[in-house]
Structures are given as C-alpha cells and as structure tokens.
Amino acid sequence: MKKFYFLLVIALLASCNTLKRAEKSLNSGDYNRAFDILVTRYQKGLSDKKFTQYLSSLQEAYYRMVNQEETQIEYLRQTNNPANYKEIYERLIQLNNRQSKLKSLLPLFHNGKKVEITTKNYLDAIENAKLEYTEYLYNQASTQMLSNTKPEFRKAYYNFKKVNELIPGFGDVNKMLSESHFHGTDFILVDINNESNQMLPRRLENELLELRTNGLDDFWTEFHNIKQQKITYDYLMRFDIHRIMVSPERLNSSHHRLEKEIKDGWEYLYENGQQVRDSLGNPIKVDKYIIVRADLEEIFQEKDALVEGRVNLIDLKNNRVLDYERLYSQYGFRNHFARYRGDRRALDQEAMMLAQNRMLPFPSHEQMVYDCGEDLKSQLRQMLKRKF
C-alpha cells in the first residue's frame, strides 16, 4: 500500500511539473516547446481532471504556435530573398508535423462536448515552397559550375544532390550531378620508373601501378596508372626506384663442445671394499653420475634485400614539385638451427630447441624484392592519404 501511494505521489508531481514547464515555455514565447510538451503528455494519457487542466494550455500553445510560425513565414516571404526559401520550406514542414501530432489526438471532448480546434491544410504551401527551394538550389549550383574551380564544383555537386533528394529527376539534375562530380574530382596519374639497372619483378611492378585497387580512391580523388585521353590530370605521382640490392645467400656456423654431468641410475655404496648398510642392515644406495658429451654445430642462414627510391608529387597545372619523400624498405631472411653429434643428453634447453629446427630453402631474389615492395606500397598509401 505504501508503495502504491508513493508511486501516486511521484505521478502527481511529474504531472504538475509537466504543466509548469509548458506554462513556463508559453510565458517565455517558446510556443513550439510548450506545444510539444503538452502533446507528449496527452499521448501518454490523462485523467479527466488533468485533461481539463491541460486543455486550455494545449489550445493556447497550438494557436500561438501556428500564429507565430505563419507570421515568421510571411515575414520571410516579404523580404523577397531567395536565400530564405530553405527556412520557409523547413518551417512549413515543422508546422505541418506539429499539426499532425495534434490531429492524432482528435477528436477531444470536454464535459461531453466535442472541443473544436481549427486545423489547416499546408500541403499545397509545402509543395510550392519545396519547388521554390529546389529551383533556388539548382540555380545556385548552376552558378557555382561557372566558377571553374574544384571547391565550387564540389559545392555545386552537393546542391544538385539536395535538389535530387527534394524532387528526384528535377530537370537535368542527374546529368549535372555527373558533371559536377567529374569536374570536382582530383585526378592523379601514377608513374613508376625503375632507374636501378636491376630487374623489377613483374608482379611487383603491376601491383605498384595498381595502387587504386588498394583503397586509395575516395569520392573526390581518383588514381590512374594508365593515362586517359579525355582527362586533364591535376597531379603526377612519380615513384623513381634508385636502388635494388639483394645479397648473396649466407651460411655462417659455429662449433661448440658440450659436456654435462648427469645422473645415470644408482649403485650400492662401498667403503674400503665393504658394502655399507644402514641401521636396519639394509644396503645403502647412492646416485650414479656420468659425463656425457656432444659436438654442436650452430648454423645461421641469412639473405637481405633492399629497395629505395623517391616519390615526387607534381602539380601538373604549373609543373611544380609540391612535395617529395624518400622511401626505403629492407627485408631480411633469417633462419637459425643446429646439428649435433654425440649424446643428446649433453644439450641444454636452448640447444635442444635449435636442434629441432631445420634448414629452410632460401627465398628467390624476386620474392625478396617483392616483399620489400609490399612495404613500399604501404608507405606509398600512407603518403597519398596524407596528401589527399
């Protein structure tokens, strides 16, 4: 029972607080907020008593909200400024949405009589405002297209996109979307030059050229490895490979003599030729130790590759180098193993692990250079992401 009364008090306080907040918004002139507060409370349900208390506030908030919005819309129209079309359209949408919330509560009854609340049809006004706003955006985008600069082409694209969202297929908007995107895109030609006098693996050369397949393209940036006739390129990314080196295959070894004293069973204890016994007369046993030996050959396999060069980022409009970076990649093949002769028990834990390893085939020169190239591709991608 106490819990019931407690919840009842909480509900009453919340209800009073809601009405106070609505009245406060009404008094401050924020009729939209007052209307939203009251409609939300009605949607949750009200007792007959609370219904009566809220009704006059709801009516006042609605009519004042409508009057305030219509007055502001009329003022915006009278300024004859096309830049206001967006706000006019959005205010009409919001006004219609709030009226729809009210309609969801109708009809309302008070003391058995239907409460008359006047609503309006804003659909024609919304369509007219949408058309005005759409035409304004289209004209603004068309003007931006005349500037012949990429930032303006990109602004035009987003305006044409908004046009298409408001009225799909408006005029030639699809054509203009394609044109504004094309002219707003940075086109970058990628060129790889091998100046090292060493053969570059064909697979690596192809993958370096096909950087665009590695997630570099974004909406306003496009990379090409083959020059296309109808495109005026903005930048050239030229990667000059200056040096490719692969070392000979190397086998280095070292030899170690290993000795270890280990327990090898047990034997009876003798002193002066006599068997020693304990207090109960039993023969005494002691651990038997021996020295074990092994010859260990420790072997290192090594082979190294290096590729280095320089990337120049060139602005093709004025044939000027905007930036450059030196790229360097080194890949080393390493294998460490061991062979032994003698007693395996002479090996310590490290030697045992090495003895479990085996000699591996050396990677080819091509594979070594290719592995360096994978690292270079990563460096190239990071560089281009920083620049574009």
Order of helices and strands: HHHHEEHHHEHEEEEEEEHH
Count of helical stretches: 10
Radius of gyration: 43 Å
Share of residues in helices: 40-55%
Percent of residues in β-strands? 25-35%
**Which runs of at least 5 residues are low in confidence (pLDDT < 50)?**
1-15
Structural class: alpha+beta
Distance between the termini: 69 Å
Mean pLDDT: 87
Shape: elongated
The main sheet comes to: 6 strands, mixed
> Could you tell me the number of beta strands?
10
Task: Describe the protein.
This protein is of the alpha+beta class and 388 residues long. Helices cover 47% and strands 28% of the residues. It is built from ten helices and ten strands. The strands form three sheets. Strands 3, 4, 5, 6, 9 and 10 form a six-stranded mixed sheet that branches. The protein has a two-stranded antiparallel sheet with strand order 1-2. The protein has a two-stranded antiparallel ribbon with strand order 7-8. β1 and β2 form a beta hairpin. α6 packs antiparallel against α7. The N terminus is likely disordered.
Give a short synopsis of this structure.
This protein has ten helices and ten strands. It has helices at residues 2-28, 31-44, 48-78, 85-103, 123-145, 150-166, 173-184, 202-209, 349-356, 365-387, and strands at residues 108-110, 113-115, 186-194, 221-224, 235-246, 250-268, 270-271, 274-275, 285-315, 320-342.
